[in-house]
Amino acid sequence: MSYQPHYATREPLRSEVESMPGVIVLEFGAPWCGHCHAAQPLLRDLLGEYPDAVHLKVEDGKGRPLGRSFGVTLWPTVIVVEQGEELARAVRPTTVDDLRSLHDALSARVVPPVR
């Protein structure tokens, strides 16, 4: 699974995220958030390079425990995790360079497809 254009209707539990195999890209935001909309082309391009990474697009907000458990305060916040361990984070990315840490974490753990 690669880029997901829509927010999940159900927020997974932190324990579910931690038990998922492989590399997970968590994206926290809201469908009405302008910063979230602006970041989508960057995220779509990045995740297109790593189709084997799982992208969980989670609608966040007050009272949402998953985002709070990761300390999310601004949207979008994108976090790369593996077996519950945070590997990289980008907050309100606006340029490719803002995603450099995510790219580095993904390239170290997910084999990109041959083009």
Structure, described:
The protein is of the alpha+beta class and 115 residues long. 31% of the residues lie in helices and 23% in strands. The protein is built from four helices and four strands; from the N terminus they run αβαβαββα. It has helices at 14-19, 34-48, 65-69, 100-109, and strands at 23-29, 54-59, 77-82, 85-91. A four-stranded mixed β-sheet has the order 2-1-3-4, with helices on one face. The radius of gyration is 13 Å and the shape is globular. The two termini are 18 Å apart. The mean pLDDT is 93.
Indicate the overall shape. Answer: globular
Rg, Cα atoms, Å: 13 Å
Spatial arrangement of strands, main beta sheet: 2-1-3-4
The share of residues in extended strands comes to 15-25%
Structural class: alpha+beta
Give the helices and strands, then pairings.
Elements: H1 14-19, E1 23-29, H2 34-48, E2 54-59, H3 65-69, E3 77-82, E4 85-91, H4 100-109
Parallel strand pairs: 1-2
Antiparallel strand pairs: 1-3, 3-4
Give a brief rundown of this model:
By secondary structure, this protein is α+β, with helices and mostly antiparallel strands.
